[in-house]
Amino acid sequence: MRYSEFFINTLKEEPSDWQIESYSLCLRSGLIRKIASGIYAFMPLGFRVLKKIENIVRQEMDRAGAIEMLMPAMQPADLWIKSERWFEYGPEMFRLKDRSERSFCLGPTHEELITYLAFLDIKSYKELPVNLYQIQVKFRDEIRPRYGILRAREFIMKDAYSFSANEEDLDTIYNKMYECYSRILDRLNLKYFAVEADTGLIGGKYSHEFIILSNNGEDQLVYCPSCGFSANYEMAGFARADEKSQDSSVEIKLSEVFTPGTTNIKSLSEFLKVPADLIIKTMLLKDGQGTTIAVLLRGDKELNLVKCEKFIGKKLELLSESDPAGNLSIGFLGPVNLDSSIAVVADYSIKGKKNLVAGANKQDYHLTGVNYPRDFKVFQWGDFSFPAIGDLCMNCKNELKFEKGIEIGHIFKLGTRYSEKMDAMFLDKDGKLKPFIMGCYGIGVSRIMAAVVEQLFDEKGIVWPISIAPFLVNLIAINMEDESIFKASEDIYSCMLNNKIDVLYDERNVRAGVKFKDSDLIGIPLKVIVGKNYIENKKLEIETRKDGSKLSLSLEEALQFIKDYKIKNII
Q1: Which domain holds residue 24?
Q2: Are 57 and 158 in contact (CB under 8 A)?
Q3: Residue 314 pairs with which residues in a beta bridge?
Q4: Overall average pLDDT of the 364-389 stretch
Q5: Which residues is 156 bridged to in the sheet?
Q6: Are 440 and 486 contained in the same domain?
Q7: 252: which DSSP letter?
Q8: Distance of alpha carbon 226 from the chain centroid
Q9: Cβ contacts of residue 160 below 8 Å, gap of 6+?
């Protein structure tokens, strides 16, 4: 492709609204253009990258035995109402009505629609298992679209849905998808973790997120470098460094202390001159039926609502001062003499500690010398907090590490959540109707593009892995006004095309420095430079974008080098 005939518009300046490097570089290199908040056009250069990502995803999905199809982006509300997610999904869903006032949505995901298709077409266990996938546009009205195509309102996603007759077949497909996603990210030369994660609005009982490491990532993961354990920050279990040691202090007398205005851990710690880890934080939660639960945490720990909900088995929300709570003093709550109708569950972080401080359930008062089990009862102990620096791996008891990252894929074991609600049944071999056992598997195709840029860039621009680079070679003619360089460049370009080399030929009549800067910004893996050295010595200059190494080779040697370089660097 000739540069002058290919629609590429690079920018010299940083965009005024840039937030992270990937967004800036995607705009500056001409990959995307912003249309509105969270809505982007993929320009020709970006579209080439996007298609190469799609091809890798498609190849690996086909290899895993999945079957490609295409579903409509617009979905009838009836399906979502039947699954009970029409209102649960909330304002992120784009909703619309047709001229007959029938309600539809622009699909944020396709569990409902694919389950309906299975209801229509799969009748017997003999047709199972099956795994269907599509690569399609999705729509989510993000409250804060940001970071360019990392968090957009319209994006391209590969989503797959499996239907099985039993748990064993679901496990087999789930494991295949796990391996498939790992191969996709390996082919992109990315550093990533596959971590246990919360199932969120998609639902189900088990899931893994695939997270690409990035300092600007919104997700946080926890891992153990010793044994390989890893998990999403919200789901990570951990061991405390002091869990084996019991406090040998003598229990002191329970005393009430006047603590005016100390409604948070920081102010209470400063007022009493007591470290936060010796304070009991009491949080009140309520479920949909109005039942109140008290969760006890160490003062330096944060409540993990996701873990609480999984432990209790219900959706929960934090009780605020505006909620009727039996005249309880929010900010001065504690487990001692708490209303007996409130079930108390406690985080392991306070187990074994003595002479703690807790709220007195009385405005402006706290208790000192609080000890378990002398002063309060606990219905159940559990893990209700987030891990922190210094916490240990559950498996090998070595210290955990923390990294930021970008979620790029998520796989779920859905079970029968959708099939039961939507009456999607099949006839089993025993002649009985049973609901499909389902799984779903999503990976962000357009998100991959931004995530790769976010992980693989330097001060000059993007450093694409060869597998998805828009072009493998940038053929640069130093001076197109020099007749000998012009003719040689044209001949070399034709030779590369004949050798099926994916080449961008920069024959613009601009300074060589401009061409070099554009090439580095765009991130093309190899520069092949035609200058005086070729005219005088028949030597082409070759420079690799990844490490800046340079070679001087004949045309024949250069062609072989390019072919070998591609083979060597593509997994």
Answers
A1: 13-192+414-454
A2: yes
A3: none
A4: 93
A5: 137
A6: no
A7: P
A8: 24
A9: 61, 66, 131, 132, 133, 134, 177, 440, 441, 442
